[in-house]
Amino acid sequence: xxxxxxxxxxxxxxxxxxLSFYQYFYQNKSRxxxxxxxxxxxxxxxxxxxxxxxxxxxxxxxxxxxxxxLPIVMDNSASVKxxxxxxxxxxxxxxxxxxxxxxxxxxxxxxxxxxxxxxSESFDFKGTQTNVESVAENLKSIxxxxxxxxxxxxxxxxxxGNDYTYSFDANNxxxxxVLGDTTTFLDLRINQLNVxxxxxxxxxxxxxxxxxYSGTKSISADFSISQGxxxxxxxxxxxxxxxxxxxxxxxxxxxxxxxxxxxxxxxxSESEKNTxxxxxxxxxxxxxxxxxxxxxxxxxxxDIGALKRAIEMNPQRHVTVLRPxxxxxxADYNVMILYQPTVEFRNLFESNKxxxxxxxxxxxxxTDFNFLNQQQxxxxxxMSAQKEDYSADFSPQFNLFAIDDLGFSTFPPLQNAFxxxxxxxxxxxxxxxxxxxxxxxxxxxxxxxxNGKRNAYLFGENxxxxxLQSHVDLNSYEKFDVFVDKIIQxxxxxxxxxxxxxxxxxxxxxxxxxEITAQYFNKNYEFDEKxxxxxxxxxxxxxxxxxxxxxxxxxxxxxxxxxxxxxQYTFSVVxxxxxxxxxxxxxxxxxxxxxxxxxxxxxxxxxxxAQTKGIAFMPDQADQLIKALLDNNDxxxxxxxxxxxxxxxxxxxxxxxxxLSLAGEWFIRKYNGML
Length: 675
Hints:
There is one protein chain. This protein is of the alpha/beta class. Helix 1 (about 5-25) packs antiparallel against helix 2 (about 35-55). It starts with a helix and ends with a helix. Strand 3 and strand 4 (about 115-120) form a beta hairpin. The protein is built from 14 helices and 33 strands. A 9-stranded mixed beta sheet has the order 16-15-17-18-23-22-21-19-20, covered by helices on one side. The radius of gyration is 40 Å and the shape is extended.
């Protein structure tokens, strides 16, 4: 309390005492007990009011003992139960959590984790995923800026998340309690299988399989991939104590459209403790990419043959070369390549306004640019009769589709009329033009999209020289042909706008997060945040239907369907106001990743303990773990003094005392007839 405050309090005492004396004793010779009591009440009231006006701050100091946190984190995933370690895990947790010595020294915290991390003292070991990394991230947040040990009761087999070995704070010791039998059993396992989710009809798609062996002798195993009752690939694999892994690469034919389900198997004549991990189901959706392409030209040029050969390198493409007057129905084609259009293309352009077929326009020295100005609004041309050679510069910012730089800047220049090309609308430029060493900042190959229709523009002829140069550089036409195929694939894609757009996978693995997202757009094609979307999911086998409300996120509505059993499902998303509907289907493959293990991952848990300067313990060493925690002098309780300054005006007791003092003075004066 400052000197000024003390002086003001003394002044308040003098003022309150003086006023009380003046009111009850000045010119009043009575010194009765009633007068003394009344003068005291008046003095107290005045002094208390003045004290509130001064409002001194009262300092209060309390002491608090802060213990070191001790998180005891239990693995609640199904793999613990599959390793027959669930009862041991429960006993270990109770022994640690209820230990009175640990509780006296530490602030004991109980958590459990599987796919998620949460506070809990009960465990059911039904988690479908194991994410040890989430333990590290959550503990860092909960016990921020503190030094503490962690007891991790787990088998160490992680199925989701990044490598947890280096996820924990290196300054905070981790003591893993290893669950499961560490005895080495003979075990063959399909560790990982990589395959694209989509394949194109009549092509072959690659499958990469990582196989793993645990054992002490050399064995021979048979690996196969089957579809239904048909074996589509088979291979013999040899393992030994020094050769414990193998990689198998196969190419499977995509000869039927739709969702194709396969089964990978790895078997030997040896008996195994766990055969569930010898089988892995996977699925590929085969898409019919067959497209009809029309090259329409009024002139003969080597470009036409080069484009036709490049496009038809993909067996799903068929190219027809036509004159403008030979085109009977624009709607028969998926993409049209309009090569150097002139006024003779007028009827074709008019027909396409209704059909909406995506086009690739190639210009050159024979192009009628005045006519082209009339037929599209994306670019405006001011061209002369003079010819010019234009080289290409690749734009790395292009992101409509993935494309590599083939060395376009070294390709022979394309020839076009000299002039200026201005962009009026939105256009994505893949290649910009350059005249010798001078950049024109004008497009050479560009793409535009408007009202659901896609168009591409190549401003120059003699692209056949590019295909030839690519062959000279790489001894193959493949790179150039893939470049052309990606342009055609982009143009052949259907991008018509819909009011209800739903995104989902065609298949999921059991235990995976199953999330379906939807977007609903109003008539201006703006995301409608007030839409009411519901989804009904039906199991094809049981005919059981579940209905959910889709929750609005930042720019989409979402439905989380976790917990569905393996099987085939149909679903329907409905916007309740407009009754817009989307029907779809998906399949959940029977695959339990938590059943893939026969041993705990002792090596990784030891590595985690070493990284954090902790020690890994086995279940029968729980007493040693408790002793190690109790004997560690790095973890001591800290006593903190907490000083609080409380303004007197915040004191309700003083206000009540003032009220009682005033009421008492009034009552006494009333009772003695002094009012």
